[in-house]
Structure formats: structure tokens, C-alpha cells
């Protein structure tokens, strides 16, 4: 694996290759899985076949053991990386005085079939197109998987490739096999210049020096002249079986067979290709070009349905495209992030697995999708959430987080054999928070259902019966302490955020009953619960001496930016003196007792609040954007807040990486931290942009 000229201060692995920061990566995806691609052209995180499957490439977690798929020039270069316009196809350019090269990376989604051909199966391939734009560019390709989180040994071999046609000079492919999973690496070459021949490549099986991999890699050293192209295709090997030997022979004709039949070989290949397994077609230039074209059109067609026309259209649409990549198409679930165990502070221990779907994210995600006009995704997500209601516990309670398949088993494990991103241990998979009591989720759930009724499809009777049981359960939990939104690993408390969201849960239940004229046998009980929890919050959650809403009833001296949610869920007006005073406290710097530094907002002061985890963390993207929304709503009544909201939002946009991806957190130096890209960060960006744009246009804050 080669690299650009290395900054003498940059960190490198045992092979001398730079270890890129979290922010130095872009994402590609196909609504099934996703991959992080570094600015060097290396795939450093990918799970196959699904988001939550064991990793195959995880160099971002362990630079020596993790596995990677790199395609990089061997001379010094300067990289430039961007997405194709209105698309999730990634383009990485390598610039040098000696030449310019380009890699186009994509994962093929199911919808990438412009013709609607029934003969083309879903081909969830990773496609990497490499070409020289100017000059002759030397490349080094290394495909070095590390199966099952770098725990399983694999065998590597070069075998005959039966998908290659006579238009190719080579006949082999790389094959990686384990008892649980087999993957292959194929390639095709051509030229865009009729005056030169296609490039020559030779695959090799090689043990990489300076790596602790559990099996050999497939490598290739090659040169591309201007106009020459090579396309690598990486995929899972399925059961590509034929009925018998004769079926295989007829489906794979050769030049001699074509001559015997007196039919041009290309025509014969086209005809017999229909006899091959649909998920193992002949890999031709025409097929690869069609997949790349249709993938581009798929993304462009999808984002073209957006209804957002506001000031920050480019940022909002990029966030929408990222959010779409995080959708698991098979169930409608949305993964919180496609990565695991990326640290919230370098060398710290706040490293969690986010490849699941949280009930907490529901209302915010649904709101963003509905505001942009993506009702299909909103409905599918709503169906996933309602299906979880059917699987609720007997008392009406729900688990806080589920697998993207709807499962409940998220056992948390520590992978002690991995070093972590830049030494950040432990590396965790699974998520122990699944068993936490976090009562705030019922507020987000009910707000989600209420929004769906307001803007999407109507509620069924069976769903309403389930919802009534959930609200009845909530009414029994008003006095119960929990671990709340931040999923603390310490003592349960009466967190204010959870109390506010319990109020939301009951309030939305009452609103649903009233607006849909639905029977509500426990209406008076719900009304009493809603009013009681409101009074309790205003009495026990308010620090009258310091004039702010506290983190919890117990920690009355602790400030927590989660309370910024109050006006966003219509618990209270943003102009209420109590909320304005709390907002002013949060906007102070940490040195002055606040939570805002460099126009970014922290969750709480980790030095003063024992959350049972320890260590430091960065400012939270979510909290920063909630602060933008809170000031936007306050600014309707007091203009300076609106101006400050706009300034904070513009500053936040500057913390996106080079392709506008946003991590969970922002370091003091302005770099991304935590799992990336985080759905919650992009969802709240869309919401903040929508409401800020509306307020600046004189429309007030959105409801």
C-alpha cells in the first residue's frame, strides 16, 4: 500500500503508510452495507454483506491487522476527493506534476437498473474504476481482507474466472475463502483511446510485510497511460451453480463454439448470458458501464425528488444523500452510523458500536424525511417502528435499540486483539445499552407516530391499541429514574431530558386521540399524568439559585445541553424567561460554567459529571444543532438570537469534512470524532437548516 508524501508529523503504520484521521474518509453505500474510503484511495472500513455483519476491511480500527483494499499511485501525489454531482458515487483524484489519475468508487444499489430489465439481478458489487487522466501513472493495488473482525484465517488463491469473455486478455481472479464467507476480486481493462492498447495487469498472491493479517493478499503493480482504464469488482461469492455440465458448457461459449455455429462471438455471448445464474453474469464492459451509469442515475433521481429550496440546499441535499445511504432497504431501518468503535476522544475509552437503529432517532429522522418530501422512506421507517410495537414487552415497554433486522440481541464484546483507531481502546462490537432503562425513547416514539399521522399514512386500529398500552406504561414510569439519552454507565437518575420526553409521550397520545377521534378509556389518567410531570419538571428540574434547568433532579448544579430540546418538542416556548436563562448559561464557555466553545456545544462537563465511563470527549454535533434550533425559535421574539443561530450554523457547516460528512463529535482542533457519518448529526442538520431558513424568511419557526 503506497501513499502520498508523508507529513513528518503524521502517524504511520508498520509499513510506513499514513494512518488517516476519522475526518479523512468518505462514504459509499448501497442501502445494504457501506464502506469508508480514505483520501488515499484505500477502503478502510466495510462489513459484508450487511451494515452489522462482521468486518472484512477495518484498517481504520487497527492499521496493521484490520485489512484494507487500496489502489494508490506509487509516486508522490496530492489527493482530491469529492462526490459526483447529486450522487453518492465517489471520485478520488491523484494530482502530480507527472500526471493525474482518478478512481471512481461505488456500491451498486438494488434500484440501479434504469431499463427495469428482469434479466438483471441485484448485483451488490463494490466497483472501483481506475484511469489515467494525464500522463503515465504507476499504481499499487492491495486487496487484503481480514475476516470476522480480524479473527478468522483465510485462504487466498488465483482461480479461473468464468465471467470473463474473450474481450479480456486474462482469465483469472483472486479468491478469498473462509468457512463462513468467500469473496472474489475480478477486473476488466479497456482503453478510451483507440490508438493505444488496454493496460496489462497481473494479479499476485502476496504476504504483506509489516502486517499482522491472517491470510495473504492479492496485489498488482501496474501502469496506466492516458486513456487506459481498469475496473476492479469485489463481491461475495454465492452459489453460482448450473444444472449440469452441459448447462455450464452452453452458458459459457468460446470462440471455437461460435465458429462452429457460424455466429459472431459477441452475439452468442449476449444470447447465452441469459442461461447463466442471474447473480453471476458475464462481466463485460457494457455491463460495468451500465451499472455505473444506472447507479449515478439512481442517486440523481432520488435527490431530485427533494422539496427543499432554501438557502443551504447543497448542505441539506448532501445530508439527505448520506441519510439515504444509512437506510437498510430490506426492513426500512436506519443505522445510526455505519462504523463501530471510532473514538469520541483519541486514546480514550468512549468507543461504541453504532451499527444499529435506536428508537430515540425516530421522530427526528421522520421529521427530516417528511420535510424534504421523502415519504416512501418515512413510511418504510414508520412500518419498521410499528413492527417493534408488536414485539413489545407484556407491560408495554420497548427495548431502546434494535438490530437493523429487528432483532433484540446486541451483546457487547470487547475485541482485545485490536489496537483501536490510533490506539483508542477498547474496541467494542455490539451495544450493552440495549438493556438500559432509557425512558426518553417513549417521547421520541410517540412524537414519531404523531408526525406520521400528521404528514403520512393513517394509523391502524391495532397500532392504536398498542400505542394506548405504551402510553399507559409511560404513566406508570413518571417517578422512575433512568439512564436517559446519553446512555450513561453510572447511576440512574431523574434526568430532565427523560422527564420532558415522558411529557411528550403522553401529550402526543392525547393529541392523537383528539385529532383522530380515537377512543381513549384512560384519557383522564393521561391528562393528570401530563400535567403532573410538567409541574414536577418546573419545580424539581429548575435551579432557582443559578437560574437554569439542571441535568437531573439529583444533579441540580449540573448543566446539560439536552434540555435545549424543550422548545423543539413544544414543551415550552423558547421565549420563556426560564428557558432563555438556561440558554444563556449553555452559551457561556466551559471556563465560565457553560457548555459552548468555539461556537460548538458540549453535552455536559465530563469533569463535573460522573457518567460511569470516564475520559474526555469533543463537542457534540447534535447539541450544537439543537442549540441552533433553540436560538432560531428564540430569535422569532428576540432578533439577536436569530443572528447568532445563523452564525453558529455557518460555523458548524465548516466542521464537515472535505465531502461534507459529519461525525458524532468535534474535537477542540475542529476534527471529526466518533462514529461517522452519524445519522443523527445529518438529520438535525436538515431540521436546523429548514427551520432557520424559514425564520430568516420571516415565516417564524416551523411546527
Automatic annotation (TrEMBL):
Domain GH15-like residue range list: 313-689
Residues annotated as transmembrane: none
Pfam family, one: TREH_N
Domain Trehalase-like N-terminal: from-to ranges: 20-96
Domain of life: Eukaryota
Gene Ontology MF: a single term: hydrolase activity, hydrolyzing O-glycosyl compounds
GO aspect biological process, one term: carbohydrate metabolic process
InterPro entries in alphabetical order: 6-hairpin_glycosidase_sf, 6hp_glycosidase-like_sf, GH15-like, Trehalase-like_N
Protein name (database record): Uncharacterized protein
Organism name: Saitozyma podzolica
Amino acid at each position: 500500500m503506497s501513499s502520498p508524501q508523508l507529513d513528518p508529523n503524521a502517524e504511520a503504520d508498520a509499513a510506513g503508510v499514513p494512518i488517516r484521521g476519522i475526518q479523512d474518509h468518505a462514504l459509499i453505500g448501497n442501502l445494504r452495507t457501506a464502506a469508508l474510503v480514505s483520501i488515499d484511495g484505500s477502503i478502510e472500513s466495510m462489513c459484508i454483506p450487511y451494515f452489522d455483519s462482521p468486518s472484512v476491511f477495518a484498517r481504520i480500527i487497527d492499521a496493521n491487522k484490520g485489512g484494507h483494499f487500496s489502489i494508490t499511485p506509487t509516486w508522490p501525489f496530492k489527493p482530491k476527493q469529492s462526490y459526483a454531482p447529486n450522487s453518492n458515487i465517489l471520485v478520488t483524484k491523484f494530482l502530480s506534476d507527472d500526471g493525474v489519475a482518478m478512481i471512481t468508487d461505488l456500491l451498486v444499489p438494488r434500484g440501479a437498473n434504469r431499463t427495469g430489465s428482469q434479466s438483471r439481478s441485484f448485483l451488490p458489487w463494490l466497483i472501483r474504476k481506475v484511469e489515467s487522466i494525464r500522463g503515465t501513472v504507476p499504481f499499487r493495488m492491495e486487496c487484503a481482507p481480514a475476516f470476522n473482525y480480524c479473527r478468522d484465517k483465510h485462504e487466498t488463491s488465483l482461480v479461473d474466472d468464468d465471467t470473463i469473455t474473450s474481450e479480456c486478455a486474462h482469465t483469472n481472479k483472486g479468491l478469498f475463502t473462509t468457512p463462513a464467507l468467500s469473496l472474489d476480486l475480478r477486473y476488466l481493462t479497456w482503453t478510451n483511446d483507440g490508438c493505444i492498447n488496454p493496460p496489462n495487469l497481473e494479479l499476485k498472491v502476496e504476504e504483506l510485510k509489516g502486517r499482522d493479517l491472517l491470510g495473504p493478499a492479492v496485489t498488482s503493480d501496474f501502469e496506466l497511460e492516458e486513456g487506459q482504464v481498469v475496473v476492479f469488482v469485489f463481491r461475495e461469492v454465492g452459489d453460482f451453480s448450473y444444472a449440469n455440465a452441459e448447462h455450464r458448457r452452453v452458458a459459457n461459449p468460446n470462440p471455437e463454439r461460435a465458429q462452429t455455429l457460424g455466429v459472431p462471438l459477441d452475439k452468442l455471448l449476449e444470447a447465452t448470458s441469459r442461461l447463466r445464474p442471474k447473480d453471476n453474469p458475464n462481466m463485460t464492459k457494457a455491463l460495468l458501464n451500465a451499472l455505473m451509469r444506472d447507479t449515478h442515475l439512481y442517486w440523481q433521481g432520488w435527490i431530485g425528488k427533494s422539496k427543499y429550496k432554501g438557502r443551504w440546499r447543497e448542505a441539506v441535499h448532501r445530508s439527505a444523500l448520506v441519510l439515504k445511504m444509512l437506510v437498510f432497504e430490506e426492513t426500512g431501518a436506519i443505522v445510526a452510523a455505519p462504523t463501530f468503535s471510532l473514538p469520541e476522544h483519541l486514546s480514550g475509552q468512549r468507543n461504541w458500536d453504532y451499527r444499529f437503529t435506536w428508537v430515540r432517532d425516530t421522530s427526528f429522522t421522520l421529521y427530516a424525511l417528511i420535510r424534504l418530501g421523502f415519504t416512501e422512506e418515512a413510511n418504510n421507517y414508520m412500518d419498521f417502528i410499528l413492527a417493534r410495537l408488536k414485539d413489545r414487552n407484556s407491560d408495554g415497554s420497548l427495548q431502546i435499540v434494535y438490530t437493523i433486522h429487528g432483532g433484540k440481541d446486541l451483546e457487547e464484546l470487547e475485541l482485545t486483539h485490536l489496537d483501536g483507531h490510533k490506539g483508542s481502546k477498547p474496541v467494542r462490537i455490539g451495544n450493552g445499552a440495549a438493556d438500559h432503562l432509557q425512558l426518553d425513547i417513549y417521547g421520541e416514539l410517540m412524537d414519531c407516530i404523531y408526525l406520521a399521522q400528521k404528514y403520512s399514512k393513517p394509523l391502524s386500529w391495532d397500532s392504536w391499541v398498542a400505542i394506548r398500552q405504551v402510553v399507559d406504561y409511560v404513566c406508570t414510569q413518571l417517578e422512575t429514574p433512568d439512564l436517559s439519552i446519553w446512555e450513561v454507565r453510572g447511576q440512574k437518575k431523574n434526568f430532565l431530558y427523560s422527564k420532558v420526553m415522558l411529557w411528550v409521550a403522553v401529550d402526543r397520545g392525547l393529541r392523537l386521540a383528539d385529532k383522530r377521534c380515537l377512543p381513549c378509556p384512560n384519557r383522564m389518567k393521561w391528562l393528570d399524568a401530563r400535567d403532573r410531570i410538567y409541574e414536577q419538571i418546573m419545580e424539581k428540574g429548575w435551579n432557582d439559585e443559578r437560574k437554569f434547568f439542571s441535568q437531573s433532579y439529583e444533579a441540580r448544579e449540573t448543566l446539560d445541553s439536552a434540555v435545549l430540546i424543550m422548545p423543539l418538542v413544544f414543551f415550552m416556548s423558547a421565549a420563556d424567561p426560564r428557558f432563555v436563562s438556561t440558554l444563556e448559561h449553555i452559551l457561556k464557555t466551559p471556563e465560565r460554567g457553560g457548555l459552548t466553545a468555539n461556537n460548538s456545544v458540549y453535552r455536559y462537563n465530563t469533569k463535573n459529571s460522573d457518567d460511569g465511563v470516564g475520559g474526555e470527549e469533543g463537542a457534540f454535533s447534535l447539541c450544537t444543532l439543537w442549540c441552533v434550533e433553540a436560538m432560531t425559535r428564540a430569535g422569532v421574539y428576540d432578533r439577536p438570537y436569530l443572528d447568532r443561530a445563523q452564525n453558529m450554523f455557518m460555523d458548524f457547516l465548516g466542521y464537515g469534512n472535505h465531502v461534507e460528512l459529519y461525525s458524532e463529535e468535534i474535537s477542540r482542533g475542529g476534527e471529526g470524532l466518533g462514529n461517522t457519518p452519524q445519522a443523527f448529526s445529518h438529520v438535525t442538520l436538515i431540521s436546523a437548516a429548514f427551520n432557520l431558513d424559514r425564520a430568516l424568511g420571516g415565516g417564524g419557526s416551523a411546527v
